[in-house]
């Protein structure tokens, strides 16, 4: 066999092999005409909903042992103190049967001042009981009756125990607190408290002076007068207080029953506070408008006496 014949024979053999392979592959891929096509069995479609997991409601874990402290509350406002009432005595039921006294009814009035000296503060409304007060300061003639009845020492300026000529109706002066208190006790009366004295002088509405809020030198005996000495206790009727009390401004300072103490609610402090000084009120013929105000106070020792100091009584 020649070379060319061999090549042709090989090509023929390869062609036959390819045909056989192709014929075999087509037979498996083509289904039989009589065989039914079998589809895979599927499950019916079912609607569904995605449910998200729900977190359970948290509960407070039970913890044994020492519990945590509660939070400390913040500072609270300090409550304002309530007003402490002033102590009062049994009220006087009616005016005294004494032509030389006037009746001051009980009830509220304005006490103290915020525009004067610090010891007059604070200005406030207080309530006191009714009382009777002398219309005018105790005169030399009245004090002489006490001296003669009790043997009490006469004032130092009474020569041989006699009232200076023409001054029978002037206020007695050169008397200590003890002298004044002794006279009041003898007369069945007492010295006025500061609150009583001030109400009798300025009334309920808190006048600066007994007659009103403006100083008037024609209504009192002060250093703006020409007197330069004590004057008769009835010389200035136009200077009367709302209750008709005379000489509550000027002529002579007047002793009160009280020790010199701060007022309720006052923040002012002074060494004289306590039970060493008594309080004078009203100013004198030697003093000016500032000290003649109805709220002005002047502390002195009980043993003090001078030509500008007298007193009146209450009951």
Task: Describe the protein.
With 315 residues, this protein is of the alpha+beta class. It has a domain of 210 residues: paralog of FGE (formylglycine-generating enzyme) (Alpha-Beta Complex), CATH 3.90.1580.10. The chain has 4 helices and 8 strands. The strands form 3 sheets. A 4-stranded mixed β-sheet has the order 7-6-5-8. The chain has a two-stranded antiparallel sheet with strand order 1-4. The protein is rod-shaped and about 190 Å long.
Layout of secondary structure:
Blueprint: H1 3-29, E1 101-104, E2 107-111, E3 124-128, E4 131-134, H2 140-150, H3 177-186, H4 194-202, E5 253-259, E6 278-281, E7 298-300, E8 309-310
Question: What's this entry about, in short?
Answer:
The protein contains 4 helices and 8 strands; from the N terminus they run αββββαααββββ. It has helices at residues 3-29, 140-150, 177-186, 194-202, and strands at 101-104, 107-111, 124-128, 131-134, 253-259, 278-281, 298-300, 309-310. The termini are far apart.
């Amino acid at each position: 066999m020649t070379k060319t014949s061999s090549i042709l024979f090989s090509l023929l053999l390869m062609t036959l092999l390819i045909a056989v392979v192709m014929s075999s592959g087509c037979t498996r891929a083509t289904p039989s005409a009589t065989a039914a096509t079998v589809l895979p069995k599927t499950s019916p479609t079912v609607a569904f909903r995605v449910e998200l997991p729900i977190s359970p409601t948290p509960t407070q874990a039970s913890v044994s042992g020492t519990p945590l402290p509660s939070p400390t509350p913040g500072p609270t406002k300090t409550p304002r103190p309530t007003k402490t009432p002033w102590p009062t005595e049994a009220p006087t039921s009616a005016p005294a049967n004494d032509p030389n006294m006037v009746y001051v009814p009980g009830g509220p009035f304005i006490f103290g001042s915020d525009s004067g000296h610090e010891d007059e503060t604070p200005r406030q409304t207080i309530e006191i009981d009714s009382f009777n007060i002398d219309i005018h300061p105790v005169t030399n003639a009245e004090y002489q009756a006490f001296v003669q009845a009790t043997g009490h020492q006469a004032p130092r300026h009474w020569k041989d125990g006699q009232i200076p000529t023409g001054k029978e109706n002037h206020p007695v002066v050169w008397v200590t607190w003890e002298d004044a208190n002794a006279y009041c006790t003898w007369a069945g009366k007492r010295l006025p408290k500061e609150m009583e004295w001030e109400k009798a002088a300025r009334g309920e509405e808190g006048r600066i002076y007994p007659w009103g809020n403006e100083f008037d030198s024609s209504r009192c005996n002060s250093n703006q007068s020409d007197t330069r000495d004590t004057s008769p206790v009835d010389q200035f009727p136009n200077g009367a207080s709302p209750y008709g009390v005379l000489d509550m401004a000027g002529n002579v300072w007047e002793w009160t029953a009280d020790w010199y103490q701060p007022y309720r609610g006052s923040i002012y402090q002074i060494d004289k506070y306590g039970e060493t000084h008594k309080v004078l009120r009203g100013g004198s013929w030697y003093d000016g408008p500032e000290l003649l105000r109805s709220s002005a106070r002047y502390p002195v020792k009980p043993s003090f006496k001078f030509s500008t100091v007298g007193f009146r009584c209450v009951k």
